[in-house]
Amino acid sequence: MNPESPNQPWLTNIAELKQAYRSTHHILIKAKEAAHPPEEQQLIAEMIADVNYAIEWMHTGKCPGNRRGIERRAAYQREKLVDPFQMQIYMQQYSPVTDKPAAVTELQRIQIEQALAGLSTRERECYELHHGMSYSLSEIAELLGVKKGTVQGYVQTASKKVVQAKQGEHKEHQS
User: Fold this and answer.
1) pLDDT tens digits for range 113-166
2) DSSP E strand boundaries for 27-68
3) pTM of this prediction?
4) For labeling, which of 53, 73, 94, 145 is most exposed (least CB within 10 Å)?
5) Which residues of 29-56 are buried (b: 16+ CB within 10 A; e: fewer)?
């Protein structure tokens, strides 16, 4: 295939793309061997890692490093328990930082409060910080003075309780 041909694309399928990445990989390996300053070798090593990542992704069809695809996760891992935007708006109404009125309807506010009512104080703190204020688990652990795994346990337990509360609410509406 002629890369200068204006009427045909340079690469026509994934096999050609993989081959182009492999040839780039070989060129980078030779360039790394010829590089002298350590900074240049480090830069080329990072480029090689990026090319390897792309090659693996094309070969497997999945993001490298992911052990389980989203399609294989359990339902509670795939589904959002409460609309994240509603949860953040709910949290903003109690935050002294914002002066804007919350855009949560009265019904939504009641549903969120009912779902959170069954949580312990620590579970609710962790759940609100994580889902309502978008803090990472590490940030919450540092803030509360506990380990990250402990925070993760509180958030998971709270999430399960919220799901149970929402399922109970859903069954009440069907009756």
Assistant:
1) 888 888 898 998 888 888 877 888 998 998 889 999 999 999 999 888 887 877
2) none
3) 0.43
4) 145
5) eeebeeeeeeeeeeebeebbeebeebbe
